[in-house]
Records
---
Amino acid sequence: MDYQGNTPLHLAVKYGHPRMVSFLLQSIAVEVGITNRDGLTAADLAYSHLEPGLQYFLNPRVVVKNCLYWIRAPVTLAAGGDHVHLYSGMSNTTAATDEDPKDINGITVTTTIASVVIATVTFAAAFTVPGGYVADDHPRAGTAVLARRFAFRAFVASDAMAFLCSIAATCFLVYGGAGQVPRRQRRLYQSSASALLPPGAQLMVDAFAFGIHVVLGEANRWLVTLVYVLALPAVLLCFPGIWARFYLGTAIWQRAGWRGLVNVHRRPESLHEFLWLFITSFMFKNLVRSLFAVLISVTFVVCIALNIALPDY
């Protein structure tokens, strides 16, 4: 403890070191409710050192704050009135009254452009299918020539999911940018749109790879494999934030068990509160971000194997 009464946990939180905070929290002997000479707990420091407005979820200080929130570390009245009801389950961000409209508009415009581009590309791809259509004078006229191929089915599924994710994100952004909508709802819409954009982009890459597979066919098996291999890093690395900081999960499990991982420490008063608690939990925020990347990667591996072993499948 230093001359200001700060414990090692206080200092790790103060300077924004998520790994050190996680390491300390894994020891039950570390008391999270100790206050320093200013009457502040570690959680108080975490909230007081956050800049006002929207926060990037990979910001080390945001990661530290979220970790302490998930284990329900004590917050004292000394931290200020804005933080008193942070554990009600309905808010876990800094005071919305300090948001900079320019920052919000910048985020909204950028996300909207990306979601609209994805929606446009995937919509066009759905009606210009690889391989073309069956001629009118043949059975099944007007249907896709390669509709029975596995890669074609995967292309359609990926393209449809990418389109739906991007359209949903665009709709959320329309409401999230409307001044008539309450601030809390706008933040929820903007967060939902930001969550839908990465899987939309990943699924678009997925659809591109499957479309190339269908077009090249069995005559270019190794070229198809090369396309999958090149597309895989784009899926895995285009959004670095999808990879969870799983080391935090150990600390949360040690402190709060499964309730801390799903962010449900008491019986919710309503279904709406339960859903809000769950979608702001460590498990949902971190595992869901990486779920699509893992599933797409597995699908790529399956397609590579089928392309080599069963080229006509």
Note: DSSP finds eleven helices and no strands in the chain.
---
Amino acid sequence: MARNFRGAAVLLFCGMMSCFVGILKEPLMPRSSVLRYGWADKDWNWGSPFGTAHDEAMALRERLDTREQRASWAQRLESGEVDLEEMKLALGLRIQHAARAGMDGDGAGWTLMQDMAACKYEGSDGPKLLKEDLDQLISAISGNSKDFSSKDVMNSGALALKAMGFMEGGRIVLGATLSPVRQRTKCNVK
């Protein structure tokens, strides 16, 4: 009886220690701060030089400053290792640049960015709706009249970014948008 109790105690102790080690390791793993925020956040303020969106955009621009960094990030995006909110932020930044350069599918990208600001892609249906609209954007950019469809939202995001010149880069000049998207609509996130 004592032997069975000791075995159970050792198993319990090992299980507790593995949980404890997992908790200790978690803060050491790099996580995007964009995960904590999103387009529905009250302080997001897309299109404004003040707010969480501006701060997160500055940090993302710095992390994706070189072609090599963008290539590595795009590869991680295609394999599902990039957070959806970070991808949406990158899309917003790239669309701003692409719209000024006439590379956003004759305004289709700008419309998608306005839909992001209006929180269309938040909530449980958000990723599905975003994938559909990204696939339409890719078709518009390529000039292909056939409907395009990728395997998932992350793949659609990567393809749309590349179609708008993401790999080549081009810094976004702060405050130089076509028309600021500052109107905040109340998000009805499901």
Note: Confidence is low (pLDDT under 50) at residues 10-33, 172-186.
---
Amino acid sequence: MYRSRCVWSHTNAGGIYPTRPLQHVTHTFQKVVPSIIDHPRVSTVGVRCISNTSETSLKRNPLRQSNHNHNHKQQITSKLRVSKALQSSAAATELKLPHALPFTDFLTDSFGRHHTYLRISLTESCNLRCTYCMPAEGVDRQPRSQLLSTDEIVRLAELFVSQGVEKIRLTGGEPTVRKDFVQLCERLGKIEGLKGLALTSNGIALEKMLPALKDAGVTQINISLDTLVAPKYHLITRRPALKRVLSCIDAALAMDFPNRLKLNCVVIKGFNDDEVNDFVEFTRTRDIDIRFIEYMPFGGNKWDDKKFISYTSLLEEIGSKYIDILRLQDHPNDTSKAYKVDGHEGQIGFITSMSDHFCGTCNRLRITADGNLKVCLFGNAEVSLRDAIRDGENDENLGELIGAAVRRKKSQHAGMYALSRSENRPMILIGG
């Protein structure tokens, strides 16, 4: 068994990376040194410093209940990227096998969690300005040249699917603002072995694309909707577009996609918690899944525990009106606790990341629009797959890089108060 250093980048308080042109950066090469990642074979991936900024500590998870046994801090530079592999590993296994196993070691973390679900952010742009997602002052977006190209997205998707990923979800920003969005879905929908292609959208520009997306192979759609009241919608999104979203919902239901339409509702105390039962009523005659999401802290969203309301409080409120509420059976890797009001067409669920996390069955990985792999939504450690691709790395070396990151994944994320003090990207730059 060998140990090698995982390649990580660390965001600053605003989640913004250094934007100095690469040609003006002094590149320093260093060989891999022992660290805390166990590999089943020799890893030959090197690292390259692309920033002369001061060193920062990669902070351990402050949640002391973690089963992780490594408590020391690892000093890293503020931005690392993969260099050319130093040499070929004699024991390395070619990743692109014609008959790959359902789960390969580089998609399994040190706690035995198999990662079969990949979320890819297609853009940092959005046509809304939701207060819990985007800071009021906006964000500094990367130049287009620093975002993943269509070919790079497809290559990464094919690599992950060949190694056991079964479902891909496309996020943003708002994915529909990407000019080649439908064409990209068509290419992803043709990947052999991919069982589900989903997307999360605000519904503003989605309706006219629905027929083409269904033909492209999209199997499931989530629409974000936090209120059914027009003035509130304008207040939280900073755009007057509720009618367009409701029209999109009706159109999506009529399209009859293979999987049930889902609505994502972030519940904020004092803003929309009084509408919870209105959303439940929405399921009476619609075969739809309303998911109430606990308010989560991210960079720039001014999270306040006074605005937080737990799912148990929401369930109690719903139960005061709807007596016959059925608890539905959980499925493996579910993030939502599912319920159904007896007699309703649709169902409701609660995503309880803050009050009752589901880290033990997490099977999700994320790729940001600028090509960084995040193994945890709430983690601030990232690794650049974009830079590895543009350095000419082959799939085997990409797999080594991905595997090191996945094995570094912690047993669980920190609690909401610790998260509110930690550094992370704004949600719009993560991709949900």
Note: The chain has ten helices and 20 strands.
